[in-house]
Amino acid sequence: xxxxxxxxxxxxxxxxxxxxxxxxQLGALIRHARxxxxxxxxxxxxxxxxxSELAAAGQSESPTEVLMDEGRRSGKEAKAxxx
Length: 83
Known about the structure:
This protein is mostly helical and 83 residues long. Helix content is 72%, strand content 0%. The chain has four helices and no strands.
């Protein structure tokens, strides 16, 4: 996977102390969080697609089961990611 600014966003989240930020800085921090969340969501979708391929070949359980077990997701969340 390629870096689309997610490393910078993670570093900004690690470095920040929200208790000390003003409104503009908090907005920037929230945008960094959104970027990281989007990256994680995209990674889970790609993993789900690959698990689907493996499941079709009899080499894995369903993507929903993997996301529930490995991703600690609810059934509803796992199904949404799979879809």
